[in-house]
Amino acid sequence: MNRSIAIIGSGIAGLATGIRLQQAGNQVYIYEANDYCGGKLSEFKLGDFRFDAGPSLFTMPQFIEELFELCGEPIEDYFSYSRKDIVCKYYYEDDTRFTAYADQEKYIQEAALIFGENPDSIRAYLASSKKKYDLTKSLFLNKSLHKLQTYLSFDTLKGIASLSMLGIHRNLNQENEKFFKNPKLVQLFNRYATYNGSSPFLTPGIMSLIPHLENHYGTYIPKGGMISITKALVSLALKVGVKIQLNSKVEKILISDSKRAEGIVVNGENMYSDIVVSNMDIVPTYRKLLKGREAPERVLRQERSSSALIFYWGINKDFQELDLHNIFFANDYVGEFKNIFENHTIGDDVTVYLNITAKNIPQDAPAGQENWFVMVNAPGNTNQDWDEIIQRTRVNILNKLSKTLGVAIEPLIVSESILDPRSIESRTQSYQGSLYGAASNNQFAAFLRHPNFSNEIKDLYFCGGSVHPGGGIPLCLLSAKITSELILN
């Protein structure tokens, strides 16, 4: 085959695409504007504390294992991880505490006890979640939605025939209320809408398939932190012969008179190739790299997913009860989402997501201290007064954490860094700072995502969280697979 392929961006989808195409006999060049690889999946240090700067949830490791198997490389030489016995812990201000165990039956019994629900209702919900996933994965996750042959397989036709039972005519909140009486448990399963940056009051009920990915496949802790995923993929890419060029900002995609992608402009220099793959957010890909060319405006103007406001705190205390777990400090979930997605403000009723990693990775924090990743869902950057929002939200978060944990938190903060939608947008080129590209707040959202290829320009392809099938580590890796197969076939 031996074609020259230029990939714009070294997010995990770009790296995985590069690995697959290089292994198939092509010469791949990855151009990265930053001085580091990984896109959102990066790291930084703050004094004596180390932080993962991006995703904090690791699921479906089989998609990473598949890359090493494809290349005939032993994954244990590059990357290791362990499965968590506890997925996360939930804290409510009325002193309700719920531990989400990885063992499904233990999870069901604990949830039934804490929330006063019939265990059979919880069991039925998880079975429904699995069924939705099994019926739709062939259509929505494993293949391009924009190629006719996708719809000609038996599995796909079976999934389409079952659409009426998938909850697409109800929103996720309504789907969850079908199964549960306790508003706290409805709230718990509503939060899975945030896994693709959407609202449970708008995204279709089919999104209730997401809990299956966590409850069935489990959650994991990579040794060395989330950054070890990026490091492993970079090492594998270099091993198989991918050429990675950092500090190489792509300024333009070169298009021939015959409407074929023939290369890119990097730091003012033309770099010609047979194929171009953009791992850059689809909106700036068109607005900046394809400026002046006709763009799919209906796709580009879709509502964007939520962003995030994240406080990275070095804490001068060892909270044993929070050890190694994702923590959710819940409150008025309905109010929170209405504030964020309708009024574009963040009020007192925030749901805080807290990730503790210090005891899993000793070098991440000094002895007796912890590094905290404290996140609230936030609207995208549309020129709000972020400085005022950050100040107000910080006060709300500190009050909430202090009240729930019974300890004044602010005096314990010895280091602080803040990431908001503005900085997410500037660092990662994610339009409006969205974490997952377009939102999934309508029943046709999956079909409205940009395809993994261009209909207008030959030899131009796309991968990453802003195109099919969506954002998050597993979907980005699936995006890489879909894009690679389109190129190779």
What are the defining features of this structure?
about 500 residues, alpha/beta, FAD/NAD(P)-binding domain, Guanine Nucleotide Dissociation Inhibitor, domain 2, 3 domains, 7-stranded mixed β-sheet, 5-stranded parallel β-sheet, 16 helices
> What's the end-to-end separation, in Å?
11 Å
Number of domains: 3
CATH topology of the largest domain: FAD/NAD(P)-binding domain
Structural class: alpha/beta
Identify low-pLDDT runs.
none
Give the name of the CATH superfamily of the largest domain. FAD/NAD(P)-binding domain
Question: What this model shows, in words?
Answer:
With 489 residues, the chain is of the alpha/beta class. It folds into three domains: 4-41 and 55-82 and 227-302 and 450-488, FAD/NAD(P)-binding domain (3-Layer(bba) Sandwich), CATH 3.50.50.60; 114-191 and 201-215, no CATH class; 306-428, Guanine Nucleotide Dissociation Inhibitor, domain 2 (2-Layer Sandwich). It is built from 16 helices and 20 strands. The strands form five sheets. The chain has a seven-stranded mixed β-sheet with strand order 8-7-16-17-18-15-19. Strand 1 (4-8), helix 1 (12-23) and strand 2 (27-31) form a beta-alpha-beta unit. The longest helix is centred in the N-terminal third of the chain and has 23 residues, at 119-141. It is globular and about 65 Å long. The termini are close together. The model has no long low-confidence stretch (mean pLDDT 87).
